Amino acid sequence: MDNGQLLTAILGLIFVLGLALVTITILKWLQTKGADFCLCKKLQSSRHINIIEQRRLDARNTLAIVEADGIRYFLLIGADSSLVLNQTARKEKSK
């Protein structure tokens, strides 16, 4: 390869990477502005586990409230083991 072909290849790579970065930035911006299109819905609906709250008790233990598929779990998470202290079904809000 001579210098002209190498320069063209490098500039082409930079151009494609720049287009990908611009596309990702625009999609993220649209998602934060509440855009209502199928890609954002799919990204938001695929999350099944949410950490509601967590508190450190000491260096080794943490209390956490986790929601998974409509059920909330109160967990004691330790360095060696984890324990479910309570689990409740989350009540749906009426519209």
Portion of residues in beta strands equals 25-35%
Order of helices and strands: HHEEEE
Roughly how many Å apart are the termini?
Answer: 67 Å
> Count of helical segments?
2
Structural class: alpha+beta
Provide the gyration radius in Å. 23 Å
Using the alpha-carbon principal axes, give the shape.
elongated
The tally of strands reads 4
Low-confidence runs of at least 5 consecutive residues: none
Summarize the amount of helix as a percent range: 40-55%
Strand neighbour order, sheet with most strands: 1-2-3-4
Q: Residue-averaged pLDDT, rounded?
A: 83
Q: Total domains, how many?
A: 2
Largest sheet: 4 strands, antiparallel
Characterize the structure shown.
The chain is α+β, with helices and mostly antiparallel strands and 95 residues long. The protein folds into two domains: 3-43, no CATH class; 48-89. Helix content is 40%, strand content 32%. It is built from two helices and four strands; from the N terminus they run ααββββ. The protein has helices spanning 3-32, 38-45; strands at residues 49-56, 62-68, 71-77, 82-89. Strands 1-2-3-4 form a four-stranded antiparallel beta sheet, with no helix packed on it. The radius of gyration is 23 Å and the shape is elongated. The N and C termini lie far apart (67 Å). The mean pLDDT is 83.
